[in-house]
């Protein structure tokens, strides 16, 4: 209970929640206590608007009807709103007054830029885990970025952010993000070995690869288990996905490693296309090769109608990888 209270207090404080806020529940309340926002908004006397299903047009309607000022969600929520905004009749609801808090996966920089330029909403990124109640970092546009272009701001906002109040961060020799905080778990229920591993040396081990810049902002490079090792080189699936998202035909993408006799693993992109934009496999591979080192580029692209996600909109990469690794002892080659 102490962890939940501290998380809600810090999250509400850093997001600037007050009694004028109207909060739209696009994030399920069962998911990590809605990141603590249900408690923070209630404590400050704000108003709650409940949404039973994530639907872009319905989100815009409720923002217009109820004067919503704040919502939280995964990048998939942003995508549904941006798609609905294209056909919206009239001014975009919440333009200049809405702020959206995003976590679950680093959104593409192009998506972040579109939140500012097309919706007129403030974009805030946070990072955390269930074990940390969850808030660890926040990235919100700073005064010194006011002179930047939306594209330049989007690059800065694509990072996980700086430590929240009471959080200390570091990285291990192999690049794993480590943290100490007032609201980390005490233990996993009846799992002493897992607890000892997660809390080794007095740090909580997040399982995420990261780099921490000179300004103390963390950038998540990948989940440790999602890093692709091709020909001995580590490839961040997040970096490749961001590149593919910059192609106008790409609506959704997941980049995974699949077995390869020569390279151990090779890079496959699973892509959902947007509307009628024409593109083929080689076109997307060439798009990446024009922007990334060639060893980071997909060697194959598979087109899908949809990608497996959780109830909160996170990609389930272990499910996407599984068919390609079937019959192998482990999902690394």
Write the layout of secondary structure elements.
Layout: H1 2-15, E1 22-25, H2 37-44, E2 47-50, H3 56-66, E3 70-73, H4 75-86, E4 99-102, H5 109-119, E5 122-128, E6 135-140, H6 150-157, E7 162-163, E8 168-171, E9 176-180, H7 192-198, E10 204-212, E11 218-223, E12 228-230, E13 233-235, H8 237-245, E14 250-260, E15 264-273, H9 281-289, E16 300-303, H10 317-325
Parallel strand pairs: 1-2, 1-3, 3-4, 4-5, 15-16
Antiparallel strand pairs: 5-6, 6-7, 8-9, 9-10, 10-11, 12-13, 14-15
Helix pairs in contact: 1-2, 3-4, 4-5, 5-6
Work out the radius of gyration. 20 Å
Written as H for each helix and E for each strand, in order along the chain, the element string is HEHEHEHEHEEHEEEHEEEEHEEHEH
- The overall average pLDDT, rounded, is 92
| CATH architect. name of the largest domain | 3-Layer(aba) Sandwich
In terms of quaternary structure, the protein is single chain
Helix content bin = 25-40%
- SS class: alpha/beta
Shape: globular
Distinct helical segment count: 10
CATH superfamily of the largest domain: ANL, N-terminal domain
- Stretches with pLDDT under 50, minimum 5 residues: none
Q: How many distinct folded domains? A: 3
Kindly provide the name of the CATH class of the largest domain: Alpha Beta
Q: What is the terminal separation in angstroms? A: 43 Å
**Share of β-strand residues:** 25-35%
Query: Main sheet: which strands, in order across?
Result: 2-1-3-4-5-6-7
Give me the CATH fold name of the largest domain.
Rossmann fold
Instruction: Give the tally of β-strands.
Output: 16
Major sheet description: 7 strands, mixed
């Amino acid at each position: 209970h102490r962890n939940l209270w501290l998380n809600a207090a810090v999250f509400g404080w850093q997001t600037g929640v007050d009694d004028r806020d109207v909060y739209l529940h696009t994030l399920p309340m069962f998911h990590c206590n809605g990141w603590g926002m249900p408690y923070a908004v209630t404590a400050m006397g704000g108003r709650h608007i409940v949404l039973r299903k994530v639907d872009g047009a319905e989100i815009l309607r409720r923002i217009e009807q109820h004067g919503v000022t704040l919502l939280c969600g995964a990048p998939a929520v942003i995508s549904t709103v941006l798609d609905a905004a294209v056909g919206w009749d009239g001014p975009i609801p919440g333009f200049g007054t809405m702020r959206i808090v995003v976590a679950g996966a680093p959104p593409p920089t192009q998506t972040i830029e579109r939140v500012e330029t097309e919706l007129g909403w403030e974009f805030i990124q946070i990072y955390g885990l269930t074990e940390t109640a969850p808030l660890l970092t926040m990235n919100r546009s700073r005064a010194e970025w006011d002179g930047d272009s939306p594209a330049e701001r989007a690059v800065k906002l694509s990072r996980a952010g700086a430590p929240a109040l009471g959080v200390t961060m570091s990285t291990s020799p192999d690049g794993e993000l480590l943290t100490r905080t007032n609201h980390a778990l005490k233990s996993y229920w009846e799992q002493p070995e897992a607890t000892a591993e997660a809390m080794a040396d007095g740090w909580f081990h997040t399982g995420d690869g990261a780099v921490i810049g000179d300004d103390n902002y963390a950038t998540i490079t990948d989940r440790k288990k999602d890093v692709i090792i091709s020909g001995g080189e580590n490839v961040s699936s997040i970096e490749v996905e961001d590149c593919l998202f910059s192609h106008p035909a790409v609506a959704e993408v997941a980049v995974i490693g699949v077995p390869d006799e020569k390279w151990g693993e090779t890079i496959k992109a699973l892509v959902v296309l947007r509307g009628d934009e024409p593109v083929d496999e080689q076109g997307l591979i060439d798009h990446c090769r024009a922007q990334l080192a060639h060893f980071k580029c997909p060697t194959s692209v598979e087109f899908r109608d949809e990608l497996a996600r959780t109830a909160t909109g996170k990609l389930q990469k272990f499910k996407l990888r599984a068919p390609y690794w079937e019959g192998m002892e482990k999902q690394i080659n």
